[in-house]
Design brief:
A hairpin with a 7-residue loop joins β3 (96-102) and β4 (110-119). This protein has helices spanning 13-40, 50-70, and strands spanning 73-78, 84-89, 96-102, 110-119, 122-125, 135-142, 145-152. Helices cover 32% and strands 32% of the residues. A seven-stranded antiparallel sheet has the order 1-2-5-4-3-6-7. The longest helix has 28 residues, at 13-40. The chain is built from two helices and seven strands, in the order ααβββββββ. The radius of gyration is 29 Å and the shape is elongated.
């Protein structure tokens, strides 16, 4: 009968230490990377005081319902030259249009835009806007009536 012996190097404490160091090193590196990515995309607090915001929530909902009841509609588009064009429907002539733009992710850019009427139901920003992703909060005011909506800028 013939027996064979496997010739292998013994598993030492050095090998175990190397495995542990490499394994935990990978875990720590991934954790630091994910934490830095998570914090770099957040611009700060959403509200300064959540209790005060909760007290105002019903007022905000009433304003949104009043805005929706007006039946006005508006769309925002960025043209090739960088100016923002607002097209409205059912908004009264002579309404004042304004907008607040912010980046949805990444750099904390914020802009306030004013608009001039360029024809019936059409308004153009007085200043150009850089290309890229923007969230736009439109506000149309006519006398005591106020309409507001937030959407992505196309």
């Amino acid at each position: 009968m013939m027996t064979t012996q496997a010739s292998s190097k013994p598993f030492t404490g050095r090998k175990m230490a190397a495995i542990l160091i490499v394994g935990f090193g990978i875990v720590v590196a991934v954790n630091f990377t994910m934490a830095s990515l998570a914090t770099s995309g957040f611009h700060g607090v959403v509200v300064e005081n959540s209790y005060v915001a909760s007290q105002n929530f019903n007022d905000w909902m009433e304003e949104a319902e009043a805005s929706r009841a007006l039946g006005w509609e508006a769309t925002a588009e960025r043209s090739e030259d960088g100016f923002v064009t607002i097209r409205t429907s059912d908004a009264p002539q002579g309404a004042v249009v304004s907008a607040e733009l912010r980046r949805p992710i990444g750099v904390d850019d914020r802009l306030e835009l004013a608009f001039q009427s360029t024809g019936p139901d059409t308004y153009r920003s007085t200043a150009p806007v850089e290309a890229g992703r923007w969230t736009v909060r439109l506000r149309i005011t006519s006398g005591e009536q106020v309409w507001a909506e937030e959407s992505a800028l196309r």
